[in-house]
């Protein structure tokens, strides 16, 4: 981008340009930088091309690798502030980087476990959009689920409020497919699902959907979300309070075995109650 042209240089562009400049100055290839930082070369390339902003942890690791003090971390914060209008911007970058996620879902199936039909039903609730945009949103959500498969599969632990499996979609088949997907996911080696029963009453996380994300640097961040807004929490003290609340809630949840049994029963009850269409 020409800084002397009419197009204003964004903070994100300054950040990505500086990342590339530092690597070229060092004389390292992306593979060599990946070896030094322990980040995948493809991820580092996306940072340099602006495909991803990444996290402040990644910026800090690169600062230490290049010996640039806090320069890259400062540039990252400017770029992050610039992107703050989009509530998913920070989260999507951190989710893509995370090696593990512990999530609590208050009323809907988590995005990483949704079927296309269920995702579409939820996205339609967020506002009227064209079919083309809706298709793109569903496709993007499904693409995120690729993190749950492969040799570097994300380690995922989900606590699901009982309302998640008790609130069906208007389309019985969509709901049957979604319940079947949860049953299938609960048996994957890298996925653990537990149901939080109604009977435990109110708890510390009862008002929000929450995710704890483990980053390659060893740091943990949290993300709160409701239908209108989201907040990325990075302060250590705040994250630890959220982590404690999550651990206490997990202690009150059904075991993974009992949760799987309940999901299977819910699916069986739903399919057995479906009324065949009259011809």
Automatic annotation (TrEMBL):
SUPFAM superfamilies assigned: lambda repressor-like DNA-binding domains
UniProt domain HTH cro/C1-type: residue ranges: 19-72
Domain of life, source organism: Bacteria
Any GO molecular function: DNA binding
Gene3D superfamilies associated with the record: lambda repressor-like DNA-binding domains (1.10.260.40)
Protein name per the record: Helix-turn-helix domain-containing protein
Organism, as annotated: Actinacidiphila bryophytorum
